[in-house]
Amino acid sequence: MEFPRYNNFNFLRFFLALGVILVHNGGITGSDKLRFILQFINGDIIVECFFVISGYLITKSYLKKRDGYFYRRGLRLLPAYYACMIFMFVISAFISTYSFEKFILNHDIVKYVLANVFFINFIHPNLPGVFTFNPLSAINGSLWTLKTEIILYVSVPFYIFFFRYIKGYVFFITMIVSLAWLYYFKVVIATPASRTIAMQFVGMAAFFFGGALFSIYASLLKQLPKMTLASIVLYLIFKGTGFSVVVEWAVIVLMVLFFCLCLPLTFIKINNDYSYGMYIYNFPIIQILCSFGMYRTQPYLAFFMSILLTMIMSFFSWHYIEKRFLALKDKSNWN
């Protein structure tokens, strides 16, 4: 089965990113009036859906053109990421409770820059005097998934290499390890801390390479409707049991791909991918609004402003940074 001329990847990514904004409004602002959002939207599932999409598209891209793979991945990920990092650093210098001079000369800045440059922002997520009185003081909590994304990007060539020799066995080994990881940290020792561990690259590998499998075996796409329906039935049967973690994985992988590849939603086609900009800018924008007290005094206005400002930043990020750097792929020697 060939890749359909229509697909809904940008459409789904847009609404998944919008879901992230809603979850952060309900989860990090401390507003009781917005906390109800968390009853309807699960942030973990949103992240898992993103990894299914990445696994499918990244693996398909690698299989189509292996030369310059890391160069192309770098062009997609790094420019917008570092632009966001610089943007927030500049903004932080002016909203910090420290004087500008004291802020710039603070030794914590070096720790912050180094941690974020190398995608280990969890080591030092704060800047001096910034968001000190917010419920969370992290500058950009959205960035925690990017290190996992990079690890999985790097693993694709190795995964395909082993796939050439042991075929489907590499997929089953990956799934056994990853799903066992998810089961242990989500079911056996289910705590807030274990949930964070479950969402690291070992756990997300199940979703990433679940999507990748349909790039490698394109013939499986013919069976997507039947497989999706079967997974939903199994989920309803095993819902509430420990086994539901495994079935939920199958439902998420299959439903994401079914939605993106099997539904002819050409009338809502989105040509531009604003989701990355939405993802990396929403958290700091919410934090800025929170630092001005808007979520205490006017939570609904802050809510809509967070969406509007994030959309504006994602528009500029896509058209003036991401899209321009992606155009360099066509000018490279690997084209």
From TrEMBL:
Question: Which part of the chain is the Acyltransferase domain?
Answer: 7-316
Keyword Transmembrane helix listed: yes
Mind listing the UniProt keywords for this protein, alphabetically? Acyltransferase, Membrane, Transferase, Transmembrane, Transmembrane helix
- Lineage top rank: taxon: Bacteria
Q: Which residues cross the membrane?
A: 12-30, 36-59, 80-100, 112-131, 143-162, 168-185, 197-220, 232-264, 276-295, 301-321
Q: Which organism is it from?
A: Lelliottia wanjuensis
Query: Which GO cellular component terms are attached?
Result: membrane
What this protein is called in its record is Acyltransferase
One BP annotation, GO: polysaccharide biosynthetic process
- Which InterPro entries does the protein's record reference? Acyl_transf_3_dom, Acyltransferase_3
Q: Does the keyword Iron-sulfur apply?
A: no
